Amino acid sequence: MRRFLTRHWYAYAMVLPVVVVVAVLVLYPLAQGVYFTFTDVNESTIANPVLDRPASYDIVGLRNYLAVLSGDPSYGSFWSTLLRTVVWTGSCVVLTYGTGLGLAVLLNRPMRLRGLYRALLILPWAVPTFVSAFTWKYMFNSQYGIINQLLGAIGLGQPVWLGQTDLALFSVIVVNVWLGVPFMTVALLGGLQSIPADLYEAAEMDGATGWQRFRDVTLPGLRSVSSTVVLLGVIWTFNMFPVIYLVTGQNPNTRILVTYAFERFFSGAVRNYAVASTYGVLILSVLVVFAAFYRRSLRGQEEFAL
Amino acid sequence: MSTIVSADVTASRMAVRTADPVRTAQRGRRSLRASVGLHATLILASLIAVFPVFWVLVTSFKPDDRAITPRPELLVEPTVGNYSDVLSGRDGDFLAWLGNSLTVALLTTVIAVFISATTGYAVSRFRFPGSRLLLASFLVVQMFPFAVLIVPLYGVLLAVGLQGTSVGLVLVYCTTAVPFCTYMLKGYFDTIPNAIDESGRIDGLSPFGVFWRLVLPLARPGVAVTAFYAFLTAWGEVAFASAFLSAEDTSKTLAVGLQVFVQENRVEWGHLAAASILVAIPAVAVFYLVQRFLVAGLAAGAVKG
Questions:
Q1: What is the pLDDT of residue A306?
Q2: What is the reported pLDDT for A169?
Q3: Can you give the CATH number for the domain in which B137 is found?
Q4: Which of A265, B59, B228, B230 pairs as cysteine with B290 (C-beta 3.0–4.6 A)?
Q5: pLDDT bucket at A3, cuts 50 / 70 / 90
Q6: How much is the average pLDDT of B221-240?
Q7: Over 50: is that where the pLDDT of A305 sits?
């Protein structure tokens, strides 16, 4: 034991702060959250040290899971909400990745004003999310928003973007893509710059066309960056709360799993912590399963390091 | 094909970062039409990226009751009234919010960068039992729907006496920022040759000394990106801030305070726009300070993971 410590104590001392913080502020709350899913805890039964009130909730076994997984609308229609979450995540990640890749390829060429373009294109990243959300809400307004004013000026319809229709889902996807593209662009630009130049020269000498160079040199060279940013993108988008919440509020047409969990936490006649925690555990399970499959499908590519 | 490429990528990352312009210069000149297309696409994309911010800037100079016009107008009785209303604290103590947000964001940045740097360095340099588990657990921490941890976290903060304080909020933000920052910095440290550490040890530095005096200064681009990420995480966060700070107006952060302009049936767009511009300025300033490090720093982190 002593030898073990003398050999590794530097390493452990350096990771200790993180381990303590993560254990106290993530693992312990998570354990408590998982425990909540087997109870009927809510606002009025949870222990409250401020009011000096002891906990008075009961264990109810799997009742929360059965209620949620039955797809009951009063428990958030789990399956259709899951489907919407998948549509939301899929569209956002595909569009952000595609746009980011396109812009990164363009920005990787030598040209005039490259620095300026890069600075402008990553501006959305620098703006705080809640500011962007308010901004887009203003622009999407059906009567006085600039988007409808422009559409009206060229004779197109003036749809209600943020109403209770699927257009609202489309709108929040637009906002999220606008927010997410800079991160993808910058990450992929970094990846592009790490592809050795001689690979392109060799390809060119073999007579490869531009498209062939992109497919056979650029894409394989980007694979490790891509697999990382796509996985992170999926996780972040799946749990993206502020964009939807601040742009459309509690709109059933933009409800995804995490916003519903938040609704159960903070609104309704009684704040139902048990149902919200059940959603939390289900979200985590979906993501863990996804990540496991994702990593398995990429196994053999050792450069995928996450 | 892909294995060859990946081996090359790893081997020549350091050399290639600077070699980029050379490569592309050799690839011949573009035709005029391709040039026009390239610039047109980039100009269009830049417009889409910048327009919303520009439009808020325009709106912020319109009188609040004229921010809603039936037709788009660039200038309506230009005034700085919104700014003076916001700064004078007519609807809420904006300067107090700004101070709180700055405190929280800067503390988060310093703490998160410091502890993710030590952790990232340990994971990058030492093979110790549990290091793989630690990295894997960071990935899982990213998956937590944090909105759902709020109530248990509230209990924890209450128990340790940090509920309602900015220190409690800073710690919570660190749990969000640290996993990603650690990944990024580990990736960056991996690109710094081990020989530097060894020569430092020969010169009599302790492992901490090597980390602090040799490796960390070399990792400045990675640190800059990490700091930027941590700052933005804390600067723009809404959910935790609304749940964990006391309801007093003077203890709010900007993200919470600004919602005073968004009422149920009326939004004060002019005031909101002016406040948004004021909020965005520090973030954009930090952003352009680290901008030139961004590509290299992020690439190292994301490629190596």
A1: 42
A2: 94
A3: 1.10.3720.10
A4: B228
A5: low
A6: 85
A7: no
- B94 and B64 part of one domain: no
Contact residues, chain B, for A22 at CB < 8 Å: 137, 141, 175, 178-179
pLDDT of residue A300: 55
Lowest mean pLDDT among A1-5, A222-226, B221-225, B286-290: A1-5
> Are B104 and B45 part of one and the same domain?
no
| Beta-ladder partners of B267 | B262
With CB atoms and an 8 Å threshold, state whether B236 touches A124.
Answer: no
* Whether residue B79 is found in the same domain as residue B115: no
When divided into structural domains, chain B yields a total of 2
pLDDT tens for each residue of B248-262: 778 888 888 888 887
Residues of B in contact with A122 (CB under 8 A): 49, 287, 291, 294
A111 inside domain = yes
Nearest CA in chain B to A240: B145
Report the complex ipTM.
0.83
Domain boundary among B86, B113, B143: B86
One-character DSSP codes across chain B: -HHHHHHHHHHHHHHHHHHHHHHHHHT-PPPHHHHHHHHHHHHHHHHHHHHHHHHHHHHHTS-GGGSS-SS--S-SS--SHHHHHHHTTSSS-HHHHHHHHHHHHHHHHHHHHHHHHHHHHHHHH---TTHHHHHHHHHHHHHS-GGGGHHHHHHHHHHTT-TBSHHHHHHHHHHHHHHHHHHHHHHHHHTS-HHHHHHHHHTT--HHHIIIIIIHHHTHHHHHHHHHHHHHHHHT--HHHHHHB-S-GGG--HHHHGGGGB-SS-B-HHHHHHHHHHHHHHHHHHHHHHHHHHHHHHHHHHHH-
Residue A305 lies in a domain: no
Residue B77 has pLDDT above 50, yes or no: yes
Choose the most confident range, by mean pLDDT, from A93-102, B80-89, B133-142, B157-166: A93-102
Is the pLDDT confidence value at A242 over 80?
Answer: yes
Whether A239 and B69 lie within 8 Å, measured CB to CB: no
Give the domain range for residue B240: 89-304
Probe site for chain A from B4, B5, B59, B139 (most A CB atoms < 10 A) = B5
Arithmetic mean of pLDDT, A9-36: 83
- Percent of chain A residues topping a pLDDT of 70: 94
Domain carrying residue A208: 18-297
CATH number, position A132: 1.10.3720.10
Rg of chain B, C-alpha, whole Å: 24
Q: How many CB atoms lie within 10 A of CB A83?
A: 11
Same domain, B35 and B132: no
Q: B14 at the A interface (CB within 8 A)?
A: no
Q: What is the mean pLDDT of chain B?
A: 79
A306, part of any domain:
no
Contact between chains at B149 and A239 (C-beta distance less than 8 A): no
Shared domain for B102 and B74, answered yes or no, is: no
Task: Quote the minimal CA–CA distance from B163 to chain A in Å.
Answer: 11
Residues of A in contact with B305 (CB under 8 A): 224, 228, 304-306
Same domain, B247 and B297: yes
Q: What is the pTM of this model?
A: 0.84
Last residue of a domain, one of B39, B62, B86: B86
Q: Are residues B186 and B50 in the same domain?
A: no
pLDDT value of residue A238: 93
| Total domains, chain A | 1
How close A194 comes to chain B (CA, Å)? 5
